[in-house]
Amino acid sequence: MIELTHVSKTYAGKEVKAVDDLTWTVEDGKITGFFGPNGAGKSTTLKMICGVNSVDEGTIKINGHDITTDGLEAKRQFAYVPDDPDRFLRLTGIEYLTFMADIYGTPAEKRAPFIEDYAKRFEIYDALSSRISDYSHGMRQKVHVLGALIHEPSVWILDEPMLGLDPKGAYELKEMMREHAARGNSVLFSTHVLETADQLCDAVCIIAHGHKLFEGTLEELKAAHPGTSLEQIFLEMTANE
Ligand SMILES: Nc1ncnc2c1ncn2[C@@H]1O[C@H](COP(=O)(O)OP(=O)(O)OP(=O)(O)O)[C@@H](O)[C@H]1O
Ligand SMILES: [Mg+2]
To answer: Which residue, of 95, 161, 202, 220, has the greatest Cβ tally within 10 A?
Structure first.
């Protein structure tokens, strides 16, 4: 579970808040989709939850651990896949996964089966001995997802994880998200693909200009706008901002 209470963030040199007084709960056992136009504040919010960006005002707790005052324990709770997979390029895939397993203290007996199972599902098993710099965008995305998940945390935080994945990769990731949520864990992801909300999300949060416009289930959102497509609802909500 992730709990944000009156969270705000202003980047240095900017007058407008990137995130403005956001109060929101991401519940266990659900896949939560985070939607909003470009520049709405999604990545900023996810980076604050993960401790990459500091929180100016308010509090963020992950499974009850405050990211500001109890950062180490809070960080043990989650996996974070950033929006940019061009990282650790000089390492091979297997070196990167081993590095991630080492820093999170994943026992040796859990690593090999995890890597074999998930890398095969993502069809990158045979590429693990190559450098990440030689990977395509989608392959980089996949290895970063595996690196994030290798310590098997309860909370998954994924910033546009489907971007650049091929259909099989996107299908497998969605399946992994469903399996993880079905085990009672939290899965939070941002996306611009509204269809994934219908396919995947138990709950959604929509923001624009750092303000929350909607938090709830897809059924609640649709019931509030009868006879309107999801695309139309989204366009109208964000246009009014
Ligand atoms: N490092 C930064 N320094 C200064 N301003 C930033 C920085 N990162 C983001 N911003 C600003 O904060 C606001 C929110 O950006 P953010 O990246 O959180 O949006 P987003 O919802 O993730 O957008 P997108 O859908 O394009 O990924 C934007 O106005 C952006 O210009
Ligand atoms: Mg973003």
So the answer is: 161
